[in-house]
Every structure is written in C-alpha cells, then in structure tokens.
Design goal:
single chain, alpha+beta, 2 helices, globular
C-alpha cells in the first residue's frame, strides 16, 4: 500500500523526532533545518581559519559500475563513489563557497575552509556538477550565482539543456 503525502510527512516527523535523523551536533558543526525548499544545512559551531579542515565526510562506498546517480554521492578516485552519512549529506552547494572539497583518504573526503568562517555560518562548497537534465536550479543566493548547480564551464551547456526541456513541455 502506497503512503499518502500526509501520512508520509507524519511518519517522517516521528522518525526525525525519535531517531534524530535530521539532527546532528558536535563541537565543530551542527545540522539545522532551514525549512521549506531549502531543507537542512550544516553550520559552524566554532570559528574555522583559512586552510583548516572543517569536516571529514564519511559514508558508504559504492563502486562506480553500481552507482545509480544519487544527488548526495561524491566521486572518489579509483572509480568509487561516497554516499555521505550525516552531517556530510546535508552540506549545501554555493556558487560562492566558503570551503573546498578534497579527498582526505582513500575512502573519505573533507572540506577545507577557504576563508575565515565564524560560528553560525553555513558550511558550503561548490558541487561543480556536469550539466545534466536532472540538475536543479541553484538557490544559494550569492551575488555570483550561476543559476544552476553546475561548474562555471558547464553553464552554457546547462542553459541549452534547460531550453530544450522547456520546449519539450
């Protein structure tokens, strides 16, 4: 039996409350739910200086030949993808990020502060996705926003894909 939207929302709320699915906090970062379309984000609990490791992103390893295209998965070297666990799964994209994504070990990624990050600031990095039909519009709100969650060199291609998609409707 398929769950109605109302029932699914009620059950998800119970899971969130009982198991803290969307909650996380340690001395460095915490997850906060923006609400609405923006959803959850990861915020600094303390100050981070430029070049400092903000967070190590751990999770489930998926071989590239078994990867089905999750929007959370991050590419690792040697044909592997990393499906991050919380809080890594809630780190949002920004066209003007305050962190850079780097591979820290064979099985984990990390975010390195690009600038001074004050407590209460949202932690974000530039996803730099390749243009694809499923790429969402960007909601980062930065002055340099590219309009889509794609790399700078993918914007023209994304505009063409969006125009084709609009014509098909």
């Amino acid at each position: 039996m398929e769950l109605s939207k109302k029932r699914r929302k009620k059950l998800q709320s119970a899971v969130d409350q009982d198991y803290g699915y969307r909650q996380y906090e340690d001395r460095d970062v915490y997850v906060y739910d923006h609400g609405g379309k923006l959803g959850c984000g990861v915020f600094a609990s303390r100050q981070f200086l430029p070049g400092e490791l903000v967070i190590e992103i751990k999770g489930q390893l998926i071989p590239a030949n078994e990867y089905d295209g999750s929007t959370y998965a991050m590419h690792l070297e040697d044909d592997w993808y990393l499906e991050p666990t919380i809080p890594g799964a809630f780190i949002n994209h920004s066209c003007s990020p305050n962190c850079d994504l780097v591979q820290v070990t064979d099985t984990t990624n990390g975010l390195i502060a690009r600038c001074n990050i004050e407590p209460g600031t949202e932690i974000c990095f530039d996803y730099q996705w390749e243009a694809q039909h499923w790429i969402p519009r960007c909601q980062c709100g930065s002055r340099d926003c590219r309009g889509w969650v794609v790399g700078k060199d993918e914007v023209k291609k994304m505009k063409k894909l969006a125009a084709r998609k609009k014509k098909a409707k």
